[in-house]
Amino acid sequence: MSDDLQRLLRYIVHHYTWREEVKDIELEASPLENGGDIAASRRRALRDVQQRADLLSDAFRDGLKRASDAQRAGGNAISLDDRVPEDNRIADAMIHFLVGTGLAHSTTRETDPLHYIYTVSVDWTRLNSVAREARVDLGAAIK
């Protein structure tokens, strides 16, 4: 993955994905838990989401490339079939890091029992704004 897309993914992890996970931790924390337990849970959540980002970084890059290619061709979304391993990994990356953070939207259609086609539409305006915050030229990084 290019250094710029890696930096963008890390930025999304630290400023969006992890923050959403921390909200869940804090909502689920019992009033009896001490601050140390909550802090440990927050650190563990960050470590887990960073590991997931590392595992899915190539799929994240490939998904952005496909979405960018679709946009240049006049489309506004890509379809990903979970029966195709590469598509499944891209769907996992895009849904977790873009859809889950409001930087993309998705719909799901069942193809076979327990199999789906995910249609993902990137919110390019918002993603470009986040990329600028991360000091990434998204257009150059995707090429």
Structure explained in plain terms:
It is built from 5 helices and 3 strands, in the order H-H-E-H-E-E-H-H. By secondary structure, it is of the alpha+beta class. Strands 1-3-2 form a 3-stranded antiparallel beta sheet. A hairpin with a 2-residue loop joins strand 2 (104-112) and strand 3. Helix 1 (3-28) crosses helix 2 (35-72) and helix 2 (35-72) packs across helix 3 (85-97). The termini are close together. The model has no long low-confidence stretch (mean pLDDT 89).
Number of strands: 3
Uncertain parts: none
SSE order, one letter for each helix or strand = HHEHEEHH
**Strand percentage:** 5-15%
Helix proportion range: 55-70%
Report the total helices: 5
**CA(first)-CA(last) distance:** 11 Å
List the helices and strands and how they pair.
Layout: H1 3-28, H2 35-72, E1 78-81, H3 85-97, E2 104-112, E3 115-122, H4 124-133, H5 138-142
Antiparallel strand pairs: 1-3, 2-3
Helix pairs in contact: 1-2, 2-3
In a few lines, what is going on in this structure?
It is built from five helices and three strands. It has 143 residues and is of the alpha+beta class. The longest helix has 38 residues, at 35-72.
